[in-house]
Amino acid sequence: MAGKLPLAQLSSLRITKHQIPKHGGIPNTSIHNKPLTIYHGVFPSPDLTASHIESHLKAVEVCIPQWRYTMFDTTHFHSTTHELLVIASGHGRLLFGGEDNTGKVEEEVTKGDAILVPAGVGHRRLEVSPDFEMVGSYPAGSAHWDMCYGRRGETGVEERIRKLGWFEKDPIYDGEGPALSD
Length: 182
What we know:
This is Cupin type-2 domain-containing protein. The protein is 10% helix and 29% strand.
């Protein structure tokens, strides 16, 4: 399958958005106020594969796929780019915002879901099925993604996040979509 995939209709797509407060050295959504956005069942095909997702994202040209993997089990975030994660197989429970953050978010995700993670939002896996795999993508033209953990000595994090722009087109719908509305 090459090119764009059939998507859930925007009018019926279930979207979850979360503003997550800063916690320790993890900025979360406090700097730019763009929410963590989950597109539940955006790719409804039962035959969905990582290759199909990569093909769709390459055709849209907003976020470029860079890896296939699970999610790290240590809370981390990126200060140089936003991140789009699409679940290619399996299911799991993910944590956003930091373990001890009273504003943290735990989400159940499954094959066909997509997660738009703004720069600065801490994220990690809690538990996933053995077949859990995601496609990780970053905005076209963005700097290489970094790994931050909210530890002492990580300098310039907030400044780098402040300098990042936001999407002009939705990275999945190639035009209007959940990424463009708060």
